[in-house]
Amino acid sequence: MSASSPRKRKPVCPNCGSDDVLADAAAVWDVDTQTWDITNVFDSGHACSACGAASITFKWMKVAESVPDAADAADTPSTAASHRNDDAIEFDDVALRQIRFLVGTSRRALEEARSYFDEMTDTAKRAEAAQLLEEA
Question: For the chain, what is the largest distance between any 2 Cα atoms, rounded to a whole number of angstroms?
């Protein structure tokens, strides 16, 4: 990295310090590239997959640059052994990101549902809500 290049940063969870965080965003489907294009990353609604924290504000950390040494280079698989199905790898990357997002969203939704439950006063409806929350 040259002296004039900006330092790399990454968002981390302010609670546990993990960089396994999710940003709430809007996206549009691009028919030509067959991918989602992010149109906006919202200022709030972020979550942490590692600790389950919801509605967090990211803490930004500098990323240290690492240069592979000779030992790392020796561990590099051969070209023949490293050929993989790029489409399958890309799908797995997208699938993993989606699963992390859905798990984070589910945690946030469940926390919100529990907060509604805490405010309920009707005994019968509260019992039904308790059963639904238990099943979740």
Answer: 68
- 9-59: pLDDT as tens digits: 888 898 888 889 998 888 898 898 888 888 888 877 789 988 888 888 888
**Secondary structure percentages of the chain, helix, strand, coil, to 5:** 40, 20, 40
Write down the residue that tokens 């969203």 correspond to.
105
Burial of 75 from C-beta contacts in 10 A (0-12 / 13-18 / 19+): exposed
Task: Identify the CA nearest to 23 among candidates 51, 8, 42, 39.
Answer: 42
Helix (H) or strand (E) holding 27: strand 25-30
Please state the domain extents for the chain: 9-64+85-135
pLDDT of 136 > 70? The answer is yes
Element (H, E) at 52: none
Instruction: Please give the helix or strand (H or E) that residue 45 lies within, else none.
Output: none
Q: Which residues pair with 59 in a beta bridge?
A: 12
Q: How many H helices and E strands in the chain?
A: 4, 7
| Both tokens assigned to 93 | 């990357």
* DSSP category for residue 19: S
